[in-house]
Automatic annotation (TrEMBL):
Coiled coil: none annotated. Its EC number is 2.3.1.-. This is GNAT family N-acetyltransferase. PROSITE patterns: GNAT. It comes from Reyranella aquatilis. Residues 17-151 form the N-acetyltransferase domain. Keywords: Acyltransferase, Transferase. One of its GO terms (molecular function) is acyltransferase activity. It comes from the Bacteria. Gene3D superfamilies: 3.40.630.30.
Amino acid sequence: MSIIEAELEPQHLPLAIRVRLAGPRDIDDLADLLDGGENAREQVLTWLETPGTTLLVAQSEMGVLAVAVLVTRLVPLEGVGVHKIIEVDNLVVRADQRGRRIGRRLLAAAVEWSRQRRAVQVEAVVGEGAAKRFYENFGFAVANDRLVLAA
């Protein structure tokens, strides 16, 4: 094995990642993940304090690697009552960890979390480009102005 192979190998090994609910102890890590600064900190506080908003984080021995901001909506259906939709409002992976399938693993956990809460679908609103391809590769389909996945 060459020295170059030895240096590259650890980057390609899958990280041991745990997905969990975020809480107040994560505010600084999540603000740094977003871009640092007081505005990012205020945004994280708002998410944590808003009813119907849930933050899931992907964490390894390196700390918080990614966050998914999930918003629960109850949508009335004529004659049927309501159904629950979970929207992935934001999904951010630490810049130095992108390309390691962390976002995909966190999205899979978010979809499973949504199913456990009996959501009928998971949605994401994204523009064109890499984010749209990311969700489509996961199985989301375009419906109106959003990407949708049955939960």
